[in-house]
Specification:
Layout: H1 8-29, H2 34-59, E1 63-73, H3 75-81, E2 85-95, E3 100-106, H4 107-117, H5 131-156, E4 161-162, E5 166-171, E6 186-195, E7 199-208, H6 209-220, E8 265-266, E9 277-278, H7 292-296, E10 306-309, H8 317-321, E11 339-343, E12 346-356, E13 359-367, H9 370-377
Antiparallel strand pairs: 1-6, 2-3, 2-4, 2-5, 3-7, 6-7, 8-9, 10-11, 11-12, 12-13
Length: 378
């Protein structure tokens, strides 16, 4: 600067600085409320909890994926904060939810998972992933995210399907995560991941803001942006405040009973305020139960899947990969032992295999009694 006059270089530098600052402000304009963060954390907690159970079954090790921490992040911040190789699992939803998400696992943790999937002890000497190890990790993640999608289906009350996850090793300091569209704002969910005494680390889930808000809308509908309802009650009675927890299926805590009355207290006023007042209940009367056949007729045409199970066994990923035409797999049933007949996956009867006009069939030899069948269906 000379005599208070800016040079062209200084003007250019100031303009660049102003542009960068404006860009940063624009990114911070889009935020998640605490309620939305809680909703996303609850979705992640339930889906990853189911995924952990599946992974535990596959590896025969206790797996825990808990403590979701939700925050906002950009692609540039990911490159700055995690400048090292990670295993990237890209998951695209094909039905029920629009969008995609990415799981990020440390390469060393992925090597331990691959080793356990291939029948090893989890003790590794080098933390690099070859093609075989990547295939094992891919199978583990496919099973995990498949079970997570099943959990989301139950939570959202709709069918949710995913495409097979794509597993790659990426140096996040040099490469940028890519999504189907140009997403600048991303939601990061950090989970604590433990695999017995082998892994005590973290696993990250990255979701585009658009996909995250889509999940929130499906889960809680229009209640996300509704203002909190203030509750007013007459003196001497209990104040009950609606909370966000009830959106996830939890019951609000019961109000303590009033010492002056043993009656329950409920009531709603139309001006968005709840007024507690004594409830009126009709007297209880004994009634004859309706005949069972009148109700069961309503579901007589519901189709059920029947499966006949010859036997089962379990194999490691390594053993599965070594299978070849002509290989023999020994099952857990003895020759001549009755086979199991399952209806919608539940054991109902046992029988013996017969041949009917060149097709296999089953002759039922034993049926579970009604009590046992009810226990199977629960």
């Amino acid at each position: 600067m000379n005599d208070g006059i800016l040079s062209q270089e200084e003007i250019d530098a100031l303009l660049k600085g102003s542009s960068t600052e404006t860009k940063t402000v624009n990114h911070m304009d889009i935020e998640l409320s605490d309620f939305e963060k809680d909703a996303i954390g609850e979705i992640g907690n339930i889906s990853m909890g189911t995924a952990a159970t599946t992974l535990s079954t596959l590896m025969q090790k206790k797996v825990s994926i808990t403590t979701p921490d939700v925050s906002l992040i950009t692609g540039e911040q990911i490159q700055d904060e995690y400048p090292m190789p990670y295993v990237i699992i890209e998951v695209n939803y094909t039905e029920g939810i629009s969008g995609s998400n990415v799981l990020i696992v440390k390469e060393e943790d992925a090597c331990i998972i691959a080793n356990l999937m291939m029948g090893g002890t989890g003790q590794i000497e080098n933390s690099s992933l070859g093609e075989l190890e990547l295939s094992a990790v891919g199978e583990a993640m496919n099973q995990m995210m498949g079970s997570a999608a099943t959990s989301l289906s139950s939570m959202f009350n709709r069918r949710i399907e995913i495409a097979p996850p794509r597993v790659t090793v990426m140096h996040l300091g040099k490469e940028k995560l890519s999504f189907p569209s140009n997403h600048q704002e991303l939601v990061k969910i950090n989970f604590k991941m433990e695999i017995e005494d082998l892994v005590n680390s973290q696993i990250m889930q990255i979701i585009p803001m658009e996909a995250a808000r889509n999940m929130i809308d499906i889960l809680i509908g229009s209640t996300v942006n509704e203002p909190a309802v203030e509750v007013s009650v007459p003196p001497g009675q209990t104040k009950v405040t609606p909370s966000a927890a009830t959106s996830f299926g939890e019951q609000a805590p019961a109000a303590p009973p009033d010492n002056r009355s043993s009656e329950s207290t409920l009531g709603v006023k139309k001006d968005a305020q709840y007024v507690v007042k004594p409830a009126q209940f009709a007297p209880l009367r004994e009634t004859e139960p309706a005949a069972g056949h009148q109700n069961i007729n309503l579901i007589m045409d519901v189709p059920l899947d029947i499966t006949v199970e010859l036997g089962r066994t379990s194999k490691s990923i390594k053993e599965i990969l070594e299978l070849h035409p002509g290989a023999i797999i020994q099952l857990d049933k003895l020759a001549g032992e009755p086979v199991d007949m399952l209806v919608n996956g539940k054991l109902i009867a046992k029988g013996e295999v017969v041949v009917i006009d060149e097709s296999y069939g089953i002759r039922i030899t034993a049926i579970l009694n009604p009590t046992d069948r009810m226990n199977q269906l629960q």
